[in-house]
Amino acid sequence: MSCWETIADYGLRSLGIGERLLPRSDFTLCQQVVLIGSGMIWNVYFGVLALASGFFLATAVALGKFSGNPWLRKPAEWFIFIFRGSPLFIQFFFAYFLFLSLKQVAPVFTPFTSAWVGALVVLFLNTAAYSGEIFHGALLSIPKGDIEAADAYGFSGWTRFRRIVWPTMLRLAWPAYTNEAIFLFHATTLVFFSGFPAQQQRGDALYYASYFADKTFNPFVPYPILAGYFIALTLVLIGIFGLINRRLNRHLPVARRARMRFRINAIR
Amino acid sequence: MSDLAWYACYLTTGKHLSFYASFGTVLLLLAITAPVALGFGFAGAMAARSHVFPLNWIGKAYIAIVRGVPDIAFFLFFVIALDQGFEWLRHQVKCPDWDQPIRQGSDFVVCDAAKLPLNASAQWIHETYGFLLAVLTFAIVFGAFAANVLYGAMRAVPRAQIETAEAYGMTHRQSFWRILVPQMWVYALPGLSNLWMVLIKATPLLFLLGVEDIVYWARELGGTKNPRFTDYPHGDWRMWYFLVLLVFYLVFTKVSEVVLDRVMARLTHGQATSGGEMQRKAA
Fold it and tell me: Is 0.90 exceeded by the ipTM?
Protein backbone atom coordinates (compact mmCIF):
# COMPACT_ATOMS: atom_id res chain seq x y z
CA MET A 1 0.00 0.00 0.00
CA SER A 2 1.49 3.29 -1.05
CA CYS A 3 1.70 6.29 1.20
CA TRP A 4 -0.87 8.18 -0.91
CA GLU A 5 -3.43 5.49 -0.25
CA THR A 6 -2.65 5.70 3.46
CA ILE A 7 -3.25 9.44 3.38
CA ALA A 8 -6.57 8.90 1.58
CA ASP A 9 -7.59 6.24 4.11
CA TYR A 10 -6.41 7.80 7.35
CA GLY A 11 -5.91 11.51 6.65
CA LEU A 12 -9.29 12.42 8.15
CA ARG A 13 -9.61 9.36 10.38
CA SER A 14 -9.90 11.51 13.52
CA LEU A 15 -13.13 12.96 12.13
CA GLY A 16 -14.50 9.54 11.28
CA ILE A 17 -13.95 9.89 7.52
CA GLY A 18 -12.12 7.14 5.66
CA GLU A 19 -10.99 3.71 6.82
CA ARG A 20 -12.91 2.63 9.92
CA LEU A 21 -10.40 0.25 11.51
CA LEU A 22 -7.06 1.46 12.74
CA PRO A 23 -4.04 -0.51 11.52
CA ARG A 24 -3.32 -3.36 13.91
CA SER A 25 0.03 -4.74 12.90
CA ASP A 26 2.95 -4.05 10.56
CA PHE A 27 2.79 -0.33 11.18
CA THR A 28 4.55 1.71 8.55
CA LEU A 29 6.17 5.04 9.24
CA CYS A 30 3.71 6.61 6.80
CA GLN A 31 0.72 5.32 8.76
CA GLN A 32 2.08 6.75 11.99
CA VAL A 33 2.81 10.16 10.47
CA VAL A 34 -0.58 10.35 8.76
CA LEU A 35 -2.67 9.21 11.73
CA ILE A 36 -0.89 11.42 14.27
CA GLY A 37 -1.24 14.32 11.85
CA SER A 38 -4.92 13.50 11.48
CA GLY A 39 -5.24 13.71 15.26
CA MET A 40 -3.75 17.21 15.16
CA ILE A 41 -7.08 18.37 13.69
CA TRP A 42 -8.59 17.98 17.14
CA ASN A 43 -5.74 19.80 18.88
CA VAL A 44 -6.12 22.72 16.48
CA TYR A 45 -9.91 22.65 16.85
CA PHE A 46 -9.81 22.78 20.66
CA GLY A 47 -7.00 25.33 20.73
CA VAL A 48 -8.42 27.77 18.19
CA LEU A 49 -12.01 27.75 19.47
CA ALA A 50 -11.05 27.92 23.17
CA LEU A 51 -8.61 30.74 22.50
CA ALA A 52 -11.03 32.74 20.34
CA SER A 53 -13.94 32.46 22.78
CA GLY A 54 -11.79 32.65 25.92
CA PHE A 55 -10.34 35.96 24.78
CA PHE A 56 -13.63 37.78 25.36
CA LEU A 57 -14.37 36.20 28.72
CA ALA A 58 -10.77 36.93 29.73
CA THR A 59 -11.25 40.63 28.98
CA ALA A 60 -14.44 40.64 31.04
CA VAL A 61 -12.78 38.77 33.92
CA ALA A 62 -9.78 41.11 33.90
CA LEU A 63 -12.05 44.17 33.98
CA GLY A 64 -14.05 42.53 36.79
CA LYS A 65 -10.94 41.92 38.88
CA PHE A 66 -9.77 45.47 38.14
CA SER A 67 -13.06 47.11 39.12
CA GLY A 68 -13.61 48.74 42.48
CA ASN A 69 -17.02 47.15 42.95
CA PRO A 70 -16.68 44.06 45.20
CA TRP A 71 -19.72 42.43 43.55
CA LEU A 72 -17.72 42.31 40.32
CA ARG A 73 -14.25 41.89 41.80
CA LYS A 74 -14.88 38.95 44.14
CA PRO A 75 -16.47 36.60 41.57
CA ALA A 76 -13.69 37.39 39.09
CA GLU A 77 -11.01 36.73 41.70
CA TRP A 78 -12.62 33.42 42.69
CA PHE A 79 -13.01 32.38 39.07
CA ILE A 80 -9.31 33.00 38.40
CA PHE A 81 -8.26 31.32 41.65
CA ILE A 82 -10.29 28.16 41.01
CA PHE A 83 -9.12 27.62 37.46
CA ARG A 84 -5.50 28.61 38.03
CA GLY A 85 -5.16 26.91 41.41
CA SER A 86 -6.19 23.41 40.38
CA PRO A 87 -4.79 21.07 37.73
CA LEU A 88 -6.47 21.10 34.34
CA PHE A 89 -6.40 17.31 34.43
CA ILE A 90 -8.63 17.24 37.53
CA GLN A 91 -10.87 19.94 36.01
CA PHE A 92 -11.45 17.73 32.98
CA PHE A 93 -12.32 14.73 35.14
CA PHE A 94 -14.62 16.75 37.37
CA ALA A 95 -16.39 18.39 34.45
CA TYR A 96 -16.88 15.09 32.66
CA PHE A 97 -18.49 13.42 35.66
CA LEU A 98 -20.48 16.57 36.41
CA PHE A 99 -21.90 16.51 32.86
CA LEU A 100 -22.64 12.79 33.22
CA SER A 101 -24.69 13.51 36.36
CA LEU A 102 -26.44 16.48 34.77
CA LYS A 103 -27.33 14.32 31.79
CA GLN A 104 -29.47 12.16 34.09
CA VAL A 105 -31.43 15.24 35.17
CA ALA A 106 -31.67 17.19 31.91
CA PRO A 107 -31.08 15.61 28.50
CA VAL A 108 -29.87 19.01 27.25
CA PHE A 109 -26.47 18.11 28.66
CA THR A 110 -26.05 14.97 26.53
CA PRO A 111 -23.66 16.60 24.01
CA PHE A 112 -21.53 17.93 26.90
CA THR A 113 -20.44 14.40 27.77
CA SER A 114 -18.60 14.11 24.47
CA ALA A 115 -15.22 15.72 24.09
CA TRP A 116 -15.99 18.13 21.29
CA VAL A 117 -18.33 20.20 23.48
CA GLY A 118 -17.51 19.23 27.06
CA ALA A 119 -13.74 19.51 26.87
CA LEU A 120 -14.07 22.69 24.84
CA VAL A 121 -16.11 24.28 27.65
CA VAL A 122 -13.44 23.38 30.21
CA LEU A 123 -10.63 24.67 28.00
CA PHE A 124 -12.60 27.86 27.33
CA LEU A 125 -13.05 28.58 31.04
CA ASN A 126 -9.47 27.56 31.82
CA THR A 127 -7.84 29.78 29.23
CA ALA A 128 -10.20 32.63 30.19
CA ALA A 129 -8.88 32.41 33.76
CA TYR A 130 -5.20 32.28 32.77
CA SER A 131 -5.51 35.06 30.18
CA GLY A 132 -7.74 37.06 32.54
CA GLU A 133 -4.89 37.12 35.04
CA ILE A 134 -2.46 38.20 32.31
CA PHE A 135 -4.82 40.98 31.14
CA HIS A 136 -5.37 42.10 34.72
CA GLY A 137 -1.61 42.43 35.16
CA ALA A 138 -1.50 44.49 31.96
CA LEU A 139 -4.35 46.74 33.15
CA LEU A 140 -2.36 47.46 36.30
CA SER A 141 0.66 48.57 34.29
CA ILE A 142 -1.08 50.93 31.87
CA PRO A 143 0.89 54.20 32.16
CA LYS A 144 -0.91 56.80 34.24
CA GLY A 145 -0.16 59.41 31.57
CA ASP A 146 -2.19 57.53 28.96
CA ILE A 147 -5.32 57.64 31.10
CA GLU A 148 -4.75 61.29 32.03
CA ALA A 149 -4.32 62.19 28.37
CA ALA A 150 -7.57 60.37 27.55
CA ASP A 151 -9.37 62.32 30.28
CA ALA A 152 -7.89 65.57 29.00
CA TYR A 153 -9.22 64.85 25.53
CA GLY A 154 -12.67 64.27 26.99
CA PHE A 155 -12.78 60.49 26.50
CA SER A 156 -14.92 58.67 29.00
CA GLY A 157 -16.70 55.40 29.59
CA TRP A 158 -16.91 53.05 26.62
CA THR A 159 -14.95 55.23 24.17
CA ARG A 160 -12.08 55.59 26.62
CA PHE A 161 -12.01 51.83 27.11
CA ARG A 162 -12.30 51.04 23.41
CA ARG A 163 -9.76 53.62 22.18
CA ILE A 164 -7.21 53.87 24.99
CA VAL A 165 -7.40 51.26 27.76
CA TRP A 166 -8.11 48.14 25.73
CA PRO A 167 -5.47 48.60 22.98
CA THR A 168 -2.83 49.47 25.58
CA MET A 169 -3.79 46.47 27.70
CA LEU A 170 -3.48 44.16 24.69
CA ARG A 171 -0.17 45.69 23.70
CA LEU A 172 1.31 45.18 27.16
CA ALA A 173 -0.16 41.70 27.63
CA TRP A 174 0.66 40.34 24.19
CA PRO A 175 4.02 38.60 24.83
CA ALA A 176 2.60 36.79 27.89
CA TYR A 177 -0.60 36.04 26.01
CA THR A 178 1.42 34.40 23.24
CA ASN A 179 2.88 32.02 25.80
CA GLU A 180 -0.56 31.30 27.12
CA ALA A 181 -1.73 30.43 23.61
CA ILE A 182 1.21 28.06 23.08
CA PHE A 183 0.58 26.25 26.33
CA LEU A 184 -3.14 26.11 25.69
CA PHE A 185 -2.41 24.17 22.51
CA HIS A 186 -0.13 21.87 24.47
CA ALA A 187 -2.84 21.40 27.10
CA THR A 188 -5.31 20.18 24.48
CA THR A 189 -3.41 16.87 24.44
CA LEU A 190 -4.86 16.07 27.89
CA VAL A 191 -8.44 15.87 26.65
CA PHE A 192 -8.61 12.22 25.66
CA PHE A 193 -6.66 11.04 28.71
CA SER A 194 -9.08 12.49 31.21
CA GLY A 195 -12.40 10.73 31.07
CA PHE A 196 -13.75 12.15 27.83
CA PRO A 197 -14.10 9.10 25.58
CA ALA A 198 -12.61 9.00 22.09
CA GLN A 199 -15.65 7.62 20.29
CA GLN A 200 -14.74 5.07 17.62
CA GLN A 201 -11.10 5.88 18.32
CA ARG A 202 -11.38 9.37 16.93
CA GLY A 203 -8.72 10.92 19.11
CA ASP A 204 -6.19 13.70 19.06
CA ALA A 205 -2.52 13.49 18.12
CA LEU A 206 -1.32 12.22 21.48
CA TYR A 207 -4.08 9.63 21.55
CA TYR A 208 -2.81 8.11 18.31
CA ALA A 209 0.83 8.47 19.35
CA SER A 210 0.21 6.53 22.55
CA TYR A 211 -1.84 4.01 20.57
CA PHE A 212 1.19 3.30 18.39
CA ALA A 213 3.56 3.30 21.37
CA ASP A 214 1.36 0.76 23.15
CA LYS A 215 0.97 -1.49 20.12
CA THR A 216 4.57 -1.45 18.91
CA PHE A 217 6.04 -1.10 22.39
CA ASN A 218 8.45 1.33 20.80
CA PRO A 219 8.15 4.95 21.96
CA PHE A 220 11.03 6.15 19.82
CA VAL A 221 8.99 6.59 16.63
CA PRO A 222 5.51 7.98 17.44
CA TYR A 223 6.52 10.51 20.12
CA PRO A 224 9.20 12.22 18.03
CA ILE A 225 6.63 12.47 15.19
CA LEU A 226 4.22 14.10 17.65
CA ALA A 227 6.99 16.41 18.84
CA GLY A 228 7.66 17.44 15.24
CA TYR A 229 4.02 18.35 14.68
CA PHE A 230 3.84 20.36 17.87
CA ILE A 231 7.07 22.23 17.21
CA ALA A 232 5.68 23.17 13.78
CA LEU A 233 2.39 24.27 15.39
CA THR A 234 4.29 26.33 17.98
CA LEU A 235 6.30 28.05 15.24
CA VAL A 236 3.13 28.89 13.30
CA LEU A 237 1.56 30.34 16.47
CA ILE A 238 4.63 32.42 17.22
CA GLY A 239 4.52 33.69 13.63
CA ILE A 240 0.84 34.69 13.77
CA PHE A 241 1.07 36.26 17.21
CA GLY A 242 4.24 38.06 16.17
CA LEU A 243 2.38 39.66 13.26
CA ILE A 244 -0.42 40.79 15.58
CA ASN A 245 2.18 42.10 18.01
CA ARG A 246 3.70 44.17 15.23
CA ARG A 247 0.32 45.63 14.40
CA LEU A 248 -0.45 46.44 18.04
CA ASN A 249 2.87 48.26 18.39
CA ARG A 250 2.88 49.94 14.99
CA HIS A 251 2.68 53.46 16.42
CA LEU A 252 5.80 53.04 18.56
CA PRO A 253 9.41 53.62 17.47
CA VAL A 254 11.07 50.26 16.88
CA ALA A 255 13.41 50.53 19.84
CA ARG A 256 10.58 50.93 22.35
CA ARG A 257 8.50 47.99 21.17
CA ALA A 258 8.04 45.23 23.70
CA ARG A 259 10.16 42.33 22.60
CA MET A 260 8.50 38.96 22.43
CA ARG A 261 10.03 36.78 25.11
CA PHE A 262 8.96 33.21 25.56
CA ARG A 263 8.74 31.96 29.08
CA ILE A 264 7.83 28.57 30.38
CA ASN A 265 4.68 28.10 32.35
CA ALA A 266 4.00 24.57 31.29
CA ILE A 267 1.36 22.24 32.64
CA ARG A 268 -1.69 23.72 34.25
CA MET B 1 -28.16 9.26 62.71
CA SER B 2 -27.97 5.96 60.87
CA ASP B 3 -26.78 8.00 57.90
CA LEU B 4 -23.87 9.24 59.94
CA ALA B 5 -22.97 5.72 61.03
CA TRP B 6 -23.21 4.53 57.43
CA TYR B 7 -20.83 7.25 56.26
CA ALA B 8 -18.47 6.60 59.16
CA CYS B 9 -18.20 2.94 58.11
CA TYR B 10 -18.17 3.71 54.39
CA LEU B 11 -15.36 6.24 54.65
CA THR B 12 -13.13 3.89 56.63
CA THR B 13 -13.20 0.82 54.37
CA GLY B 14 -9.87 -0.65 53.38
CA LYS B 15 -10.08 0.88 49.93
CA HIS B 16 -10.76 4.29 51.39
CA LEU B 17 -7.71 3.96 53.61
CA SER B 18 -5.69 3.22 50.46
CA PHE B 19 -7.25 6.34 48.95
CA TYR B 20 -6.09 8.45 51.90
CA ALA B 21 -2.65 6.87 51.74
CA SER B 22 -2.38 7.82 48.07
CA PHE B 23 -2.39 11.49 49.13
CA GLY B 24 0.83 10.50 50.87
CA THR B 25 2.09 9.12 47.54
CA VAL B 26 1.54 12.53 45.96
CA LEU B 27 3.37 14.32 48.78
CA LEU B 28 6.18 11.76 48.62
CA LEU B 29 6.50 12.32 44.89
CA LEU B 30 6.76 16.07 45.46
CA ALA B 31 9.26 15.64 48.29
CA ILE B 32 11.58 13.48 46.18
CA THR B 33 11.07 15.14 42.81
CA ALA B 34 11.60 18.75 43.87
CA PRO B 35 15.24 18.36 45.05
CA VAL B 36 16.14 15.87 42.30
CA ALA B 37 14.69 18.15 39.61
CA LEU B 38 16.58 21.08 41.13
CA GLY B 39 19.75 19.00 40.87
CA PHE B 40 19.03 18.14 37.24
CA GLY B 41 18.27 21.79 36.59
CA PHE B 42 21.51 22.94 38.20
CA ALA B 43 23.50 20.44 36.14
CA GLY B 44 21.64 21.51 33.00
CA ALA B 45 22.25 25.22 33.65
CA MET B 46 25.94 24.57 34.37
CA ALA B 47 26.25 22.54 31.17
CA ALA B 48 24.56 25.29 29.15
CA ARG B 49 26.99 27.87 30.59
CA SER B 50 30.13 25.80 30.05
CA HIS B 51 32.66 26.59 27.37
CA VAL B 52 33.30 22.96 26.43
CA PHE B 53 31.82 22.29 22.99
CA PRO B 54 29.46 19.32 23.19
CA LEU B 55 28.51 20.03 26.81
CA ASN B 56 27.00 23.48 26.25
CA TRP B 57 25.03 22.21 23.26
CA ILE B 58 23.65 19.34 25.31
CA GLY B 59 22.66 21.74 28.09
CA LYS B 60 20.98 24.16 25.72
CA ALA B 61 19.18 21.38 23.85
CA TYR B 62 17.93 19.97 27.17
CA ILE B 63 16.50 23.37 28.08
CA ALA B 64 15.07 24.12 24.64
CA ILE B 65 13.44 20.82 23.84
CA VAL B 66 10.73 20.97 26.50
CA ARG B 67 9.48 24.31 25.20
CA GLY B 68 7.94 23.27 21.92
CA VAL B 69 6.43 19.93 22.89
CA PRO B 70 3.53 19.14 25.26
CA ASP B 71 4.81 17.83 28.57
CA ILE B 72 2.54 14.83 28.81
CA ALA B 73 4.09 13.60 25.59
CA PHE B 74 7.37 13.58 27.53
CA PHE B 75 5.80 11.80 30.46
CA LEU B 76 4.34 9.07 28.29
CA PHE B 77 7.58 8.82 26.31
CA PHE B 78 10.09 8.70 29.17
CA VAL B 79 8.24 6.12 31.20
CA ILE B 80 8.55 3.53 28.43
CA ALA B 81 11.89 4.76 27.14
CA LEU B 82 13.56 4.71 30.56
CA ASP B 83 12.20 1.27 31.33
CA GLN B 84 13.45 -0.12 28.03
CA GLY B 85 16.74 1.71 28.40
CA PHE B 86 17.44 0.18 31.80
CA GLU B 87 16.47 -3.29 30.62
CA TRP B 88 18.63 -2.92 27.53
CA LEU B 89 21.66 -1.89 29.62
CA ARG B 90 21.18 -4.82 32.00
CA HIS B 91 20.71 -7.07 29.01
CA GLN B 92 24.07 -6.00 27.57
CA VAL B 93 25.80 -6.66 30.89
CA LYS B 94 24.07 -9.86 32.02
CA CYS B 95 23.49 -11.73 28.78
CA PRO B 96 26.43 -10.99 26.46
CA ASP B 97 25.95 -14.18 24.42
CA TRP B 98 22.34 -13.51 23.45
CA ASP B 99 22.10 -13.62 19.67
CA GLN B 100 18.49 -12.68 18.89
CA PRO B 101 17.44 -9.09 18.12
CA ILE B 102 15.90 -7.10 20.97
CA ARG B 103 12.98 -5.80 18.94
CA GLN B 104 11.09 -8.68 17.36
CA GLY B 105 8.17 -7.22 15.48
CA SER B 106 6.07 -5.51 18.12
CA ASP B 107 7.88 -7.08 21.06
CA PHE B 108 10.73 -5.88 23.16
CA VAL B 109 12.60 -9.01 24.24
CA VAL B 110 15.42 -9.14 26.74
CA CYS B 111 16.72 -12.21 28.58
CA ASP B 112 14.96 -13.17 31.82
CA ALA B 113 17.85 -12.13 34.04
CA ALA B 114 17.71 -8.60 32.63
CA LYS B 115 14.03 -8.02 33.34
CA LEU B 116 13.31 -5.09 35.64
CA PRO B 117 12.00 -5.92 38.15
CA LEU B 118 12.57 -9.68 37.94
CA ASN B 119 9.49 -11.74 37.16
CA ALA B 120 9.74 -13.46 40.53
CA SER B 121 9.85 -10.23 42.54
CA ALA B 122 7.18 -9.38 45.06
CA GLN B 123 4.31 -7.08 44.17
CA TRP B 124 5.60 -4.18 46.25
CA ILE B 125 8.89 -4.24 44.32
CA HIS B 126 6.97 -3.85 41.07
CA GLU B 127 5.01 -0.94 42.54
CA THR B 128 8.10 0.75 43.94
CA TYR B 129 9.91 0.38 40.63
CA GLY B 130 6.94 1.95 38.83
CA PHE B 131 6.93 4.80 41.30
CA LEU B 132 10.68 5.38 40.95
CA LEU B 133 10.35 5.45 37.15
CA ALA B 134 7.63 8.08 37.57
CA VAL B 135 9.84 10.13 39.91
CA LEU B 136 12.74 9.99 37.45
CA THR B 137 10.44 11.02 34.60
CA PHE B 138 9.12 13.99 36.58
CA ALA B 139 12.66 14.94 37.58
CA ILE B 140 13.91 14.91 33.98
CA VAL B 141 11.02 17.04 32.66
CA PHE B 142 10.99 19.49 35.56
CA GLY B 143 14.77 19.54 35.63
CA ALA B 144 14.62 21.10 32.18
CA PHE B 145 12.25 23.82 33.45
CA ALA B 146 14.46 24.40 36.50
CA ALA B 147 17.53 24.57 34.25
CA ASN B 148 15.84 27.33 32.28
CA VAL B 149 15.08 29.31 35.45
CA LEU B 150 18.56 28.83 36.95
CA TYR B 151 20.27 29.67 33.67
CA GLY B 152 18.38 32.96 33.62
CA ALA B 153 19.16 33.61 37.29
CA MET B 154 22.89 33.02 36.76
CA ARG B 155 22.87 35.60 33.99
CA ALA B 156 20.93 38.06 36.16
CA VAL B 157 23.71 38.32 38.75
CA PRO B 158 25.45 41.67 38.00
CA ARG B 159 28.52 41.20 35.85
CA ALA B 160 30.51 43.53 38.09
CA GLN B 161 30.38 40.95 40.88
CA ILE B 162 32.19 38.39 38.75
CA GLU B 163 34.67 40.97 37.51
CA THR B 164 35.47 41.94 41.08
CA ALA B 165 36.01 38.29 41.96
CA GLU B 166 38.35 37.89 39.00
CA ALA B 167 40.17 41.08 40.00
CA TYR B 168 40.80 39.47 43.37
CA GLY B 169 42.47 36.61 41.55
CA MET B 170 39.78 33.98 41.93
CA THR B 171 39.73 31.27 39.31
CA HIS B 172 36.72 30.69 37.10
CA ARG B 173 35.62 27.84 39.33
CA GLN B 174 36.07 29.80 42.57
CA SER B 175 34.13 32.82 41.34
CA PHE B 176 31.33 30.54 40.17
CA TRP B 177 30.91 28.72 43.47
CA ARG B 178 31.72 31.55 45.87
CA ILE B 179 30.19 34.58 44.15
CA LEU B 180 27.68 33.55 41.51
CA VAL B 181 25.87 30.63 43.15
CA PRO B 182 25.15 32.28 46.53
CA GLN B 183 23.79 35.39 44.83
CA MET B 184 21.66 33.83 42.14
CA TRP B 185 18.94 32.39 44.42
CA VAL B 186 17.08 35.63 44.98
CA TYR B 187 16.81 36.03 41.20
CA ALA B 188 15.78 32.40 40.77
CA LEU B 189 13.13 32.33 43.50
CA PRO B 190 10.17 33.81 41.58
CA GLY B 191 10.77 31.33 38.75
CA LEU B 192 11.30 28.44 41.12
CA SER B 193 8.16 29.17 43.13
CA ASN B 194 6.20 29.32 39.88
CA LEU B 195 7.75 25.97 39.01
CA TRP B 196 6.72 24.53 42.38
CA MET B 197 3.10 25.49 41.65
CA VAL B 198 3.37 23.88 38.22
CA LEU B 199 4.85 20.76 39.80
CA ILE B 200 1.97 20.50 42.28
CA LYS B 201 -0.49 20.80 39.43
CA ALA B 202 1.37 18.13 37.44
CA THR B 203 1.07 15.46 40.14
CA PRO B 204 -2.25 14.05 38.88
CA LEU B 205 -0.37 12.97 35.77
CA LEU B 206 1.06 10.16 37.93
CA PHE B 207 -2.14 8.41 36.97
CA LEU B 208 -1.03 8.30 33.34
CA LEU B 209 2.25 6.70 34.38
CA GLY B 210 0.43 3.75 35.90
CA VAL B 211 0.86 4.62 39.58
CA GLU B 212 -2.11 4.03 41.89
CA ASP B 213 -2.51 7.66 42.90
CA ILE B 214 -5.44 9.79 44.03
CA VAL B 215 -6.94 9.99 40.54
CA TYR B 216 -6.88 6.20 40.25
CA TRP B 217 -8.62 5.74 43.60
CA ALA B 218 -11.16 8.53 42.98
CA ARG B 219 -12.24 6.81 39.76
CA GLU B 220 -12.21 3.43 41.43
CA LEU B 221 -14.17 4.36 44.55
CA GLY B 222 -16.58 6.80 42.95
CA GLY B 223 -17.95 4.44 40.32
CA THR B 224 -21.38 2.89 40.78
CA LYS B 225 -21.32 0.11 43.39
CA ASN B 226 -23.69 -2.81 43.01
CA PRO B 227 -25.28 -4.17 46.24
CA ARG B 228 -24.31 -7.68 45.13
CA PHE B 229 -20.59 -7.02 45.46
CA THR B 230 -20.31 -4.57 48.34
CA ASP B 231 -21.85 -3.70 51.67
CA TYR B 232 -21.92 -0.04 50.72
CA PRO B 233 -23.83 0.31 47.46
CA HIS B 234 -24.13 3.78 45.94
CA GLY B 235 -24.67 5.48 42.60
CA ASP B 236 -22.08 7.25 40.47
CA TRP B 237 -20.23 9.45 42.96
CA ARG B 238 -17.12 10.12 40.89
CA MET B 239 -18.11 13.77 40.55
CA TRP B 240 -17.94 14.23 44.34
CA TYR B 241 -14.63 12.41 44.62
CA PHE B 242 -13.11 14.65 41.99
CA LEU B 243 -14.60 17.68 43.74
CA VAL B 244 -12.64 16.59 46.82
CA LEU B 245 -9.45 16.38 44.73
CA LEU B 246 -10.18 19.81 43.27
CA VAL B 247 -10.51 21.30 46.75
CA PHE B 248 -7.36 19.47 47.91
CA TYR B 249 -5.34 21.04 45.10
CA LEU B 250 -6.85 24.49 45.66
CA VAL B 251 -5.92 24.39 49.35
CA PHE B 252 -2.46 23.03 48.57
CA THR B 253 -1.64 25.71 46.00
CA LYS B 254 -3.05 28.46 48.23
CA VAL B 255 -0.94 27.37 51.21
CA SER B 256 2.15 27.11 48.99
CA GLU B 257 1.51 30.59 47.64
CA VAL B 258 1.29 32.10 51.12
CA VAL B 259 4.44 30.33 52.31
CA LEU B 260 6.44 31.23 49.20
CA ASP B 261 5.39 34.88 49.47
CA ARG B 262 6.76 34.94 53.00
CA VAL B 263 10.04 33.33 51.91
CA MET B 264 10.34 35.90 49.13
CA ALA B 265 9.69 38.74 51.58
CA ARG B 266 12.41 37.35 53.86
CA LEU B 267 14.91 36.98 51.03
CA THR B 268 14.34 40.40 49.47
CA HIS B 269 14.79 42.07 52.86
CA GLY B 270 17.73 44.45 52.54
CA GLN B 271 18.48 43.49 48.92
CA ALA B 272 19.36 46.16 46.39
CA THR B 273 16.39 45.24 44.20
CA SER B 274 13.11 47.04 43.56
CA GLY B 275 11.37 44.63 45.93
CA GLY B 276 13.82 45.40 48.71
CA GLU B 277 13.47 49.11 48.04
CA MET B 278 9.68 48.87 48.36
CA GLN B 279 10.04 47.10 51.71
CA ARG B 280 12.39 49.85 52.91
CA LYS B 281 9.94 52.60 51.94
CA ALA B 282 6.98 50.82 53.52
CA ALA B 283 8.83 50.40 56.83
Answer: no
